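Journal club prep — side note

Before the paper discussion, L.F. wants everyone to see what a predicted structure for a comparable chain looks like in C-alpha cell form. Sequence:
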Amino acid sequence: METISASIQSQNDCDVFSQEGTYEYTTRHSANYYHFEIVKQRSGIYRIYIVQQPSYNGRSTGDHDTHRIYDSSRSLNYICVKSDKQPTSVSDATTWLIMWAEGTDHYIKHGSWDV
C-alpha cells in the first residue's frame, strides 16, 4: 500500500494518484477509517465507490444528506460530485474522497457538512 497525504493508502503497486484502484483513508480529527475504490468510467470521469465507512450513528443516511449515490449494478454507494466538478484524474478523485470523508466525519459528529 502507498501513502497519500498523511493517512491515505493505496493498495496499488503504482505511484500514488496515478491509477485506478483501492484507497484507504483515515480522517484527521476522529481517525475514522474509510475504504474507497476509484474506477474510470467510459465517459472519462472517475467514480469514487465507498467500500467501507463508519456508521452514521443515527444521522440520516439519505443520499442527499450523505452526498452519496447508490449504484445497484455494484451494490455500492459512490460519492456524489456535481456534474461540472467531476474528477477527470485519479488525483482529482483522491482530493474528492478526502473532502467527502472529512465532511462525513463532521456530519456524523455535528449533523452538518460545515467543515
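L.F.'s comment for the group: The radius of gyration is 13 Å. Keep this in mind when we get to the figures.
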